[in-house]
Amino acid sequence: MKSNFIALLAAGILAISCSNALAQSAPISGQRLALIEQEMFANGNQNFIVIDLVMDGLLEPGKGFQFEYNRGTVSLNGKKMKGEMEEKYAGRMKEFLSAYNMLVESKHSLGMNIVTTNDILDPNSPLRKPSFNLVEKAQELKSSATQHD
């Protein structure tokens, strides 16, 4: 009886581990990623750029990253992007900052220790619903500056 329980427990743990591993690496369709990216951009979520990185194969789910935009230049994991990729990502950040009336000539950093498939798919994950929203913070600062004038 005790050995049956241990075998059942071990099988349950193995099943959970396998399902977690699959959730980390399960591919997400490009169309679904594009819809998620558009929703994040429309909601003023600066993490939309993470979805772009995944779509372009520059970031794999299960890995971490550090992305920086600095006055029109971009870097990923400490390496300056070049050519078409630099143009694309600098352009996307400029488009985002302009859309939300923020300074294009500014510096913004994003990073996570690990980005999972679940982070991308779950609308309530820290990636999709960050505790710090750049757009909301900019609006608060503008509002407070206006009140003090």
Structure write-up:
There is one protein chain. The protein is α+β, with helices and mostly antiparallel strands and 149 residues long. It has helices at residues 2-25, 30-42, 48-55, 83-99, 117-121, 134-148, and strands at 63-70, 73-76, 79-80, 107-115. It has one domain. α2 runs antiparallel to α3 (48-55). The longest helix has 24 residues, at 2-25. The chain is globular. The termini are far apart.
Cα(first) to Cα(last) distance is 76 Å
Can you give the mean pLDDT? 82
Q: Name the poorly predicted regions.
A: 5-24
User: Counting H and I runs of at least 4 residues, what is the number of helices?
Assistant: 6
- Fraction in beta strands: 15-25%
The assigned structural class equals alpha+beta
Largest sheet: 4 strands, antiparallel
Biggest sheet strand order reads 3-2-1-4
* Rg estimate, integer Å: 20 Å
* Mass-distribution shape: globular
Q: Summarize the helix and strand pattern as letters.
A: HHHEEEHEHH
How many beta strands in the DSSP annotation?
4
Tally the structural domains: 1
How helical, in percent, are the residues?
A: 55-70%
List the helices and strands and how they pair.
Elements (H helix, E strand, L loop, with lengths): L1 H24 L4 H13 L5 H8 L7 E8 L2 E4 L2 E2 L2 H17 L7 E9 L1 H5 L12 H15 L1
Antiparallel strand pairs: 1-2, 1-4, 2-3
Helix pairs in contact: 2-3
Keywords:
about 150 residues, alpha+beta, 4-stranded antiparallel beta sheet, 6 helices, about 55% helix, about 15% strand, globular
Quick overview of this protein structure:
This protein has 149 residues and is an alpha+beta fold. It has helices at 2-25, 30-42, 48-55, 83-99, 117-121, 134-148; strands at 63-70, 73-76, 79-80, 107-115.
